[in-house]
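Incident log, entry 3
Record: Mannose-6-phosphate isomerase, type 2 (113 residues)
Problem: checksum mismatch between cached and fresh output.
Input:
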Amino acid sequence: MEHDVRPWGQYWVLDDSATHKVKRIEVNPGGRLSYQYHHKRAEVWTIVEGVGRITLDGEVKDYKAGEVAIIPLGAKHRIENPTDKKCVFVEVQHGTYFGEDDIVRIEDDYNRN
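Fresh output:
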C-alpha cells in the first residue's frame, strides 16, 4: 500500500484504478494542505475523525465526522485541522488522471510548487 508523509500529516492510497483513486488522509493538529486545484479530477472528502476546516472556492466551513465535502473539477480547495486532535478523512478522486503532478498550488505553507 502506497504511503507518504507530508509536512502537514500523511496519507495512504487504499485503491488506485483507471477510474478512481481512494486515499486515507491524516492532518496533524494545526496542519494545513496547500490551497490548490486540479485539471483532471474532482474529489469527495468524507471526514471520519476529528474536525476539518475546509476552504472551497473561498468559502470556509468546519466539517465533523460523517460530513462530506464535494470538490468539483477545477474548484480551489484546502483542508486544515484547527484542533489539537488529528483529523482523518477519506478522499475519493474521480476523473481522468490521478497523479500527484495534477496539483496546482495557489498558496502553500511549506513553499512547495
